[in-house]
Amino acid sequence: MEPIQLFDLASRQAEWLSLRQEVVAGNIANANTPKYKAKDITPFKAVLDHSQTVMARTNPADIASNDLNTNLDVDVRTAPLTDEVGVQVSGNSVSIADEMTKMGEIRQMSQLNTNLVSKFNSMMLMTVKR
Known about the structure:
By secondary structure, the chain is mainly alpha-helical. The protein is built from 3 helices and 2 strands, in the order H-E-H-E-H. It has one domain (5-129). The longest helix is centred in the last third of the chain and has 34 residues, at 96-129. The chain is elongated, with a radius of gyration of 19 Å.
């Protein structure tokens, strides 16, 4: 039986969300630090594209698929400047409003991830009981 990749994918997204949360929290913590440049990480879509996620094989005659890579290929880089803030007089480029928006997105994505895994787990338990 092939392993179910949904749990692996959800785990990778949770790992990505955790890293993004850490980067955003660092931006907020350094909002008053002179010459600090706001950072962000590679979007999760790029992580998925790099992992080459494909459908699992259900029949030996199906075309072979690549397994998910276990490493997250995430790059922490300087975030693009926004028109709202730009670079402040101190050389800092952190926009608290943008960082709080990112925190909200991270929260929503984490809740969705958790709910999907929970529902999928419930569905699997129902099939085992029968």
